Amino acid sequence: MGSRQMLALSLGGVIGTGIFMSPGYFIQSAGALGTIFGYIVGAILVCLVMQCLGELSVDNPKTGSFHDYANAYINKGVGFVVAWLYWATWTIALGSNLLTIGILMRRWFPSFPIWIWCFCFGLLIFIVNLNQLTWFNKSEALTSWIKTVALMIFVGIGLLMIAKVLPNHDPYQVKGFSQLTNRGWLPNGIGPILATILTANFAYSGAEMIGVAAGEAKNPDKTIPKAMRQTLAILIVLFIGAIFVMGTLLSPQDQGLTTSPFVTILNHAGIPGAADIMNAILIITLFSASNAGVYAASRMIWSLADKGEITRKLAKLNHVGLPVYGLCLTMAGGALSLLSGIYAAQTIYLILNALSAFAVVAVWIVIAWSELNFRRQYLQKHDLSDLKYRVSWYPFTPITVILICLLSIVGIGFDPNQQIALIVGIPVTICLYFYRILVERKKEKSDEL
């Protein structure tokens, strides 16, 4: 992969429903400025995380990425946990995304059952990931740039409406930027802002896919830093720009703020067919995110199998060198997630999505922790100047990542809708960790005998 392909992969994973649908809820609870602040903190955090991952990936590009780094620089228990959590994140998202695609397709084809669309798009994702990497690169490049351009156009239209260049037919509209503070700077206190930071982290998740693809990168010391810089620049401008537009143009009383803020603003601007346009963009967005997620998840299974942490049979590659069994396991997990969304939406499906949100923060903590330990170990045998890519302000950067991630986890406790992430995520993490440690000790004892 070159820097363009890695950029497309990263954007494919990041730009999803987290920016198209979620911000409206937090604008209502945390206020517009509180939400912007939360996403700015998330942007700073993802920049620091990518610096940590950049140093690790350039020095030692591995397909297993943070799984390998955690094994090497923390311990095998943490590596095992982070690999499974990351796999679960994208596998759960696959089921959720396919279900949402099926629902969105019914707008145009109401007589077709949802399961047909879930099956068709799932099969397409499987075929793209099963064949040569060129297929994946081209499909992900196309879909990633479509949704990136769509987000750019939305921000542009919104800014023109704010500047009164385009009309605004919103019955709740107010002058200038007063919508941002009409309920006060912090309408519901600090708690919702902490919850917003966690959601912002989830919205930015996917940027770390560059690390997963490092093992397949051409000239990693050049392509990885370049792809990281481009990804961060695009995300920060578009994400914060989109939230600024929503917070400035939409009143908290507007139902469209929580149901479909993009469609609402386009309708207020008098854009014909706004709902159909956004429906198509959302379908492309979900397909792209699922495609990128399956790529990352299948590589994580391969990494676990390649290290012997699960059965080595899952490390099998097909005739073009792709992890076919890891792909099959990921698709099967996505199918189970999809079924839980249909038949157990208020129980199993809710738990799975809570685990997914928790996993993102856990992965970022492990990346920073790995880099913190890596630098210490590296300097015992090498000079700092030998590193081709270095984290700025070490050790402040990785420590800051860990602290902000821990703070965002604390913020979950202030939001009743997200508290289940802690209730589920912490026990799962502990169980996976001690399982791996016990297996490792048992193996060591058998080797001694």
Automatic annotation (TrEMBL):
Q: Where are the transmembrane segments?
A: 7-26, 32-53, 73-94, 114-133, 145-165, 185-204, 232-251, 277-298, 319-342, 348-370, 391-414, 420-439
Q: Which InterPro entries match?
A: AA-permease/SLC12A_dom (IPR004841)
Tell me the GO BP annotations in alphabetical order. Answer: amino acid transport; transmembrane transport
Bilayer topology term: Multi-pass membrane protein
Alphabetical UniProt keywords: Amino-acid transport, Membrane, Transmembrane, Transmembrane helix, Transport
Q: What is its main location?
A: membrane
Q: Where in the cell is it found?
A: Membrane
What's this protein's name? S-methylmethionine:proton symporter (AAT family)
Write down the species. Answer: Convivina intestini
